[in-house]
Amino acid sequence: MAIKKTSKEEILKESIKLFKIQGYSNTSMANIADACGLIKGSIYHHFKSKDEIGIESLRYIHSYFDKEVFSIAYRTNLSDKEKIKLIVKKTDEYFLQSKGGCLLGNLALEVGTLNLEFKEEIKIYFTAWENAFTNIFQNKYPKAKARELSKEYVALIQGSIMMMNLYDSSEEYLKVGEKIISLI
């Protein structure tokens, strides 16, 4: 195999695809190198281990959602209805075009009880998602109810992503977005 230059970000993107489709445990450093067009040893110039790639992958996705999705909840130039619609739209764009489901949801199930660093990173991500919803919902509902709805809808989204991938149908997943919008 020819050696080529690649960036840390490219390695993360390929790793994320593999982790989502094959699972974390079933993905080797050699698989990641192959997907990147590298020899296995080249990966170690960027990452010390697969666990480091795993945690950085979680952080990469979290950073994307913070910038592109969760931040919408804190915009002052949009109404609550506009915010929730845009969050649903951006979330749909990501998950409807993303083979393999939600990396953080998948890894929460696969290794969340075995790897405490992964577990903590995943909890931070889901808490940020809940906080974004709560920030919008608390303008219509008491804070405790807003938090309850946020937790419920993040769980519904995750479950519907799993079912969408299992049944190869986005119908139920899309209904969850409609329900979230109807709350405002």
From TrEMBL:
Domain HTH tetR-type, chain residue ranges per copy: 5-65
DNA-binding region residue numbers: 28-47
The protein, known as: Transcriptional regulator, TetR/AcrR family
Organism: Arcobacter aquimarinus
PROSITE patterns: HTH_TETR_2
The entry's keywords: DNA-binding, Transcription, Transcription regulation
Top-level taxonomic group: Bacteria
Matches recorded under SUPFAM superfamilies: Homeodomain-like, Tetracyclin repressor-like, C-terminal domain
GO-annotated molecular function: DNA binding
TM segment ranges: none
